[in-house]
Specification:
Glutamine Phosphoribosylpyrophosphate, subunit 1, domain 1; 7-stranded mixed sheet; about 15% helix; mainly beta
């Protein structure tokens, strides 16, 4: 599988949509995750990330310009015990609530499908990091329409045990820009995670997202031994 740098991958498209990166730091001591949102419409761009307990939520930057909140206001990140959930929609809450009732990540997502935003049928992308005995494992999921047919949902889950230090997986909602927007295809991409601190990684991701379309970015480093974390939020709207 081709391994790309973060800069090369993010510069390869003007519009990834929303994206999740999960991996293990180069020193093998931290779980690393990043979530970003991009937008083409005024409604989609009118957002910021704000802290919410151990996670984050989206919020309208200018409430007077909010048109339809049902697909753009949600909690992208929540923490359940030793598990960190990262998604592009309100399926974060579905995963949290059903896993709290002893269902698995995959079982929880079987109760959901892609977004109801025809004709795009935006995929629901989700990730979960689990810390265990000083190490990590993680999984990523995509729920997408069948070649743009809103009557059929395709579900893919990718699980990663004992992940390699200095590598991450990246999944995003759209294959490229377009009208309608074509859904992401294939397995999550493999990226190099540079041996750097959280501020440098945050800057690297933010500076390589398309300037016109980027909206917000969240990055978190989680210590594999203690579970303590350090987070950063960057918003274009200030």
């Amino acid at each position: 599988m081709e391994i790309k740098t973060i800069a090369n991958e993010l510069n390869s498209l003007a519009y990834h949509g929303r994206g999740i990166i999960i991996g293990k730091s180069a020193d093998g001591k931290k779980a690393v995750t990043a979530y970003f949102i991009m937008g083409r419409s005024e409604n989609s761009r009118n957002r910021v990330f704000v802290e919410d307990g151990e996670g984050i939520r989206t919020q309208a930057f200018d409430e007077s310009k909010m048109v339809d909140p049902h697909l753009i206001i949600y909690a992208p990140v929540r923490v359940l015990g030793n598990k960190t959930i990262v998604t592009n929609g309100d399926q974060t809450d579905t995963i949290y609530e059903l896993m709290d009732r002893q269902m698995t990540f995959e079982q929880a997502l079987r109760t959901r499908e892609f977004e109801d935003d025809a004709p795009n049928y935006t995929p629901r992308i989700s990730g979960i990091i689990r810390l265990e005995n000083g190490d990590m494992n993680y999984a990523m999921s995509i729920l997408k329409s069948a070649e743009g047919d809103g009557s059929s949902c395709q579900r893919y889950t990718y699980a990663y045990s004992n992940p390699i230090a200095g590598k991450a997986k990246f999944i995003h909602t759209y294959k490229c820009d377009g009208n309608p927007l074509p859904s992401y295809e294939g397995e999550p991409k493999t990226l190099e995670l540079p041996d750097t601190d959280i501020d440098s990684l945050t800057k690297l991701i933010w500076e390589n997202l398309n300037e016109d379309n980027k909206v917000s970015l969240f990055v978190r480093y989680i210590d594999l031994e203690t579970g303590k974390y350090d987070s950063r939020i960057v918003n274009k709207n200030k």
